[in-house]
Design goal:
There is one protein chain. The protein has 14 helices and 16 strands. It has 432 residues and is an alpha/beta fold. Bound molecules: pyridoxal-5'-phosphate. Pyridoxal-5'-phosphate (PLP) binds next to helix 5.
Length: 432
């Protein structure tokens, strides 16, 4: 490691409180000083190349240093960097909102800067919607093992202890529905049966408590942060219908699964459903700038058009609808139209899967692919952090979730990139 790299890492440890990091054991072996990025690759200060198999925490869609997105942001930089969105407007936020409303078939976009805030906003809007109608609905329903972010409200609909356990006494106690993803399954039929059984259990719970439930939040078809756990779309379809029947606002958290990750523009499309509220972030700006949107239906929006100030939604964030972030998002959506559409991404995914399938001959469990996401479980005996370090030494950036190793590369990755990923993983499997 060069002197420069060592110094950067030491300075970072001295001054930066890194996210999701155990700072007491943070050291020069688990920080990499990055200098630049190009397509699916990151380049360290020392000139080492790393394949970004996690799309930089799932935000990057079309590669690092993408000239098309960069150009759009640069053009906007020459006009204005930021303007507040309360009492003012600007073309990038208008153009982006039009595109998002068109894509989601919803009605109005509320902007913020990260996924957790977009969830927080969805929860507040849902609660406030019923309050405006004179109803006291103070609870939310969520899935077992759900993850929806790390602010107080978002944590209260997150069911993963490592994120929320310490803060339990601060959180609204919400209603957890049994997980519709089986631990393992042998056929589509089994997967569907499990989903239907889970739905029956959810139905009992929701029928019992619906009067106090403002909204239900769900990651459509794939629970990412708990280990890329897939469930059958029939569950989503039935749950959506039940929420309409019971007056529960249906919130789709598409923060991780949206924008083509699962082979459809939005994962809700696998079940052919439309939510009342959709949360978007991560890929929304192509991974360029912090941006999130909470998009609501006409029925919800109209509930807040009221002369009584208490019935208006007076939430705000300073950087809401930042023009630079919106310009990155517009270019990202244009990229889907002009350069790499969902069909082309799916063709690539099929091709990549043929290569990835080579991994199934090793000692792994529950290999699964959907769209541009691959996952498998390491054998019980394999310690995930050790596995991650071995991959890093070979130039492959992964971040296992427990025993689950997943590959979620930028869509612009090439066949030779994926061959590289498989070569590295095979090399490690052979060594173990
Ligand atoms: C499904 C889901 N919801 C919400 C969030 C929170 O987003 P952010 O990290 O931008 O706050 C994440 C982040 O990983 C996520 O995967």
């Amino acid at each position: 490691m060069s002197v420069k790299s060592k110094q950067m890492i030491r300075d970072s440890m001295d001054y930066v409180w890194h996210p999701y990091s155990r700072m007491n054991s943070c050291n020069e072996y688990n920080l990499i000083a990055i200098e630049s990025g190009y397509k699916s690759w990151l380049r360290s200060v020392d000139g080492d190349q790393y394949f970004d198999a996690i799309s930089s925490w799932w935000v990057n869609l079309f590669g690092h240093n993408n000239p098309f997105i960069k150009k759009s942001v640069m053009r906007q930089l020459d006009k204005i960097e930021h303007v507040m969105l309360s009492g003012m407007t600007h073309q990038p936020v208008i153009s982006l909102s039009k595109k998002l409303v068109h894509l989601t078939n919803l009605d109005h976009c509320f902007f913020s800067s990260d996924g957790s805030s977009s969830v927080e906003i969805a929860l507040k809007i849902s609660f406030h919607f019923w309050r405006n109608k004179g109803l006291k609905k103070t609870k939310f329903a969520m899935l077992e093992n759900s993850y929806h972010g790390e602010t107080i409200g978002a944590m209260s609909v997150t069911d993963i202890d490592i994120f929320s356990k310490n803060y339990h006494s601060l959180l609204n106690k919400n209603i957890i529905l049994p997980n519709p993803s089986p631990k393992s399954y042998e056929s589509e039929k089994q997967l569907k049966e499990f989903a239907l059984e889970s739905f029956k259990k959810a139905e009992v719970i929701l029928n019992k408590h619906h009067k106090i439930i403002a909204g239900l939040i769900i990651e459509p078809i794939l629970q990412c942060a708990s280990g890329m756990n897939y469930y059958h779309p029939i569950y989503l379809k039935k749950l959506r219908a039940l929420c309409s029947k019971l007056n529960i606002i249906f919130i789709a958290d598409e923060i991780a699964v949206g924008f083509g990750r699962t082979g459809k523009m939005f994962a809700c499309q696998h079940a052919n459903i439309k939510p009342d509220i959709m949360c978007l972030s991560k890929g929304l700006s192509g991974g360029y700038l912090p941006l999130a949107a909470t998009i609501v239906s006409k029925k919800i929006y109209h509930e807040f058009l009221n002369p009584d100030i208490e019935k208006n939604f007076l939430h705000s964030h300073s950087f809401a609808g930042n023009p630079l972030a919106c310009s990155a998002a517009i270019a990202t959506l244009d990229y889907f139209n002009k350069k790499l559409n969902i069909d082309k991404i799916n063709e690539k995914s099929k091709l990549f899967n043929q290569i990835m399938m080579k991994l199934t001959k090793y000692n792994i469990r529950n290999f699964f692919n959907i769209g541009m996401i691959w996952r498998f479980d390491l054998p019980e005996s394999q310690e995930p952090m050790g596995f991650e370090s071995l991959a890093r030494e070979e130039g492959l950036l992964i971040r296992p979730i427990g025993k689950c190793v997943y590959i979620m590369p930028p869509y612009t990755s090439t066949l030779s990139d994926i061959k590289f990923v498989v070569r590295v993983l095979e090399k490690i499997f052979k060594r173990l």
